[in-house]
């Protein structure tokens, strides 16, 4: 399992919706510009990355992808009760 | 050194500016709602977390903090040439 944190600044609404659609297949839309994704195979990771790269405008937009290990996920801290969407395994402090 | 990735959805402009001010002391404002921070001590981490928790509105806002190890930082991928601010050690694909 590959846990990816994807953060993005996308200028165009259509492109942002497309990015969101690609990512929502794989995980939770945890903040307006952030997804926590769980992908099963390296092939899924490669395909998702290729799709994101194809969708964005290379000059206007930016996507950041971080592959998180268990330690990073275990260290995750969430302040505030605002919720957009969450994966099942999270905790609040 | 503690590398923290901080992502936030903050409704109020003033609170968002305050969060940004706290984080900009420690790192780069890499996207509109995302900072990559490098903190030197556990005490700095504790103080920064406390400040963020104090600033935000617990009902309206959300801050997510991920402590990233070297593997997560090495795995970081950035698509798109949009730049807000970057730390020195990053690479583009």
Automatic annotation (TrEMBL), chains A, B:
InterPro entries: CRISPR_associated_Cas2, Virulence_VapD/CRISPR_Cas2. Keywords: Antiviral defense, Endonuclease, Hydrolase, Magnesium, Metal-binding, Nuclease. One of its GO terms (molecular function) is endonuclease activity. SUPFAM superfamilies: TTP0101/SSO1404-like. Its cofactor is Mg(2+). It comes from the Bacteria. Mg(2+) binds at residue 9. CRISPR (clustered regularly interspaced short palindromic repeat), is an adaptive immune system that provides protection against mobile genetic elements (viruses, transposable elements and conjugative plasmids). CRISPR clusters contain sequences complementary to antecedent mobile elements and target invading nucleic acids. CRISPR clusters are transcribed and processed into CRISPR RNA (crRNA). Functions as a ssRNA-specific endoribonuclease. Involved in the integration of spacer DNA into the CRISPR cassette. Belongs to the CRISPR-associated endoribonuclease Cas2 protein family. Homodimer, forms a heterotetramer with a Cas1 homodimer. This is CRISPR-associated endoribonuclease Cas2.
């Amino acid at each position: 399992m590959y846990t990816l944190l994807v953060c993005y600044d996308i200028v165009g609404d259509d492109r942002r919706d497309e990015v969101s659609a690609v990512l929502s297949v794989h995980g939770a839309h945890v903040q307006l510009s952030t997804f926590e994704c769980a992908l099963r195979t390296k092939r899924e990771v490669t395909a998702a990355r290729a799709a994101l790269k194809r969708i964005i405008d290379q000059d206007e937009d930016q996507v950041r992808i971080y592959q998180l290990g268990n330690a990073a996920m275990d260290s995750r801290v969430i302040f505030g009760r605002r919720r957009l969407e969450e994966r099942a395994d999270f905790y609040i402090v």
